[in-house]
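## Example record

The block below lists the input lines for one assembly entry, exactly as stored, with component labels intact.
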Amino acid sequence: MRILKELPLVPAERALKVLGGRWKVYVLYFLFDGPMRLSELRRQIPDVSQKVLVQQLREMEEHGIVHREVFAEVPPRVVYTATKLGLSLRPIVSALCAWGRRHAAELDVLDDGSPAASPRARKRA
Amino acid sequence: MRILKELPLVPAERALKVLGGRWKVYVLYFLFDGPMRLSELRRQIPDVSQKVLVQQLREMEEHGIVHREVFAEVPPRVVYTATKLGLSLRPIVSALCAWGRRHAAELDVLDDGSPAASPRARKRA
DNA sequence: GCGCATGGTTACCAACTGGTTACTACATCA
DNA sequence: TGATGTAGTAACCAGTTGGTAACCATGCGC
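Predicted structure tokens for the full assembly:
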């Protein structure tokens, strides 16, 4: 569990590191509703490549928010579950989602149409 | 305001993008308590280089969570303030912080000492 | 005129992240 | 016999991020 040692010490930073993979909120979103197999996750999140999905799941597992269980069956079956710690992220993901929506709404208002919205025209504008 | 258009569509992802710079939570943390000059921020966050700090502040400004005000004085004075939208991140940063602390506590318990904590010894261990 | 402080910018780099493609191994299905 | 589905791994690549160091322009005090 080397990776854990490398997590930032400052709490908020650490949380952001844990959440901050390209596909992790998607994975969490689905795992909040129950366990899922790799192939199911792939179907639900078609844009992620298998390599990266596995990579993200490994990290989430090492960060203790996802549990991986292998069933030694005929076609190997691997089930991913959100741990208690993982489930405890649910309100945070919700809050982020709500804030993101608000952010989108407020900025689209400013952004839409009127170029007067720009408070401090930098030359790059 | 090109950058706004490129923000991810999924709200939580968008929020993470806005929060997800190496120093942004630090900046927010200090701006939550009131306006600050660049030099003050540099003093409070000694590990960040000026270039990167300015870079992060620019992004935060474009994302609408920070306001930049220039006073055309003898030594130029520039003051950064958290906008209303920026201040609305406060509870989220708090939540992330609390979760990060919990995460650190729970994992340190598992991690500390006993190598038996590892649920599924991967060869890399 | 020299160095300092302010608030930057520029050029250049190294590391990390995510992505593509191809490959493994096993067993069933047609 | 060969394609399909399962769950991966390995090699390689490109874009983004953060970081260093040097530089600019201004005005002050000495």
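The mean pLDDT of chain B is 84. Chain B touches chain A through 46 residues (CB under 8 Å).
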